[in-house]
Design a protein that fits this description.
The protein is an alpha/beta fold. Helix content is 21%, strand content 25%. It has helices at residues 6-17, 36-46, 84-90; strands at residues 2-3, 25-29, 61-64, 73-77, 100-104, 118-125, 128-135. A hairpin with a 2-residue loop joins β6 and β7 (128-135). α1 packs across α2 (36-46). The N and C termini lie close together (8 Å).
Length: 146
């Protein structure tokens, strides 16, 4: 899928956010500036969030909870993770007990973590972005982009 601009990137995220269910994991890959946080902002808009959404680069994990959203969403940015032990301190699994999880820089996770995840990659191509998807089980009917 070609995304013409930031608004289109956010709209794609918003469309997906309206389809999220408890236990969903959305992994967002791509280089710096590709639009991962913009897409995550869209996810949150799709969940009903109207506040400011910033990259969780320094807190690493920001949790959005009702009544601000229709269901909880953990938004993690693993860019600064250097040691897998740091991931254990984050307890990302806890977000999935009653909500969903969006992860920027999932390459920092151990290989094979959350095989059921929706893996999205954003690549900048001139002024546009290309969004590709690899859908784990349970996503095929909810997120048709391949």
């Amino acid at each position: 899928m070609i995304l013409a601009d930031e608004a289109a990137t956010q709209a794609a995220g918003e469309s997906l956010g309206g389809r999220l269910i408890v236990g969903d994991v959305v992994m967002l890959s791509g280089p710096l500036g590709a639009g991962k946080t913009v897409f995550a902002r869209g996810l949150l808009r799709g969940l009903g969030f109207s506040g400011e959404v910033t990259s969780p680069t320094f807190p690493i994990l920001i949790e959005y909870r009702p009544p601000d959203v229709r269901m909880p969403l953990g938004h993690a940015d693993l860019y600064r993770i250097e040691d897998p032990a740091e991931l254990e301190q984050l307890d990302l699994e806890a977000a999935l007990a009653d909500g969903a999880l969006a992860i920027e820089w999932p390459e920092r996770l151990p290989a094979g973590r959350w095989p059921q995840a929706l893996r999205l990659t954003l690549i900048t191509e001139g002024n546009t972005r290309r969004l590709t998807a690899e859908a784990g089980s349970g996503w095929r009917d909810r997120w048709p982009i391949r």
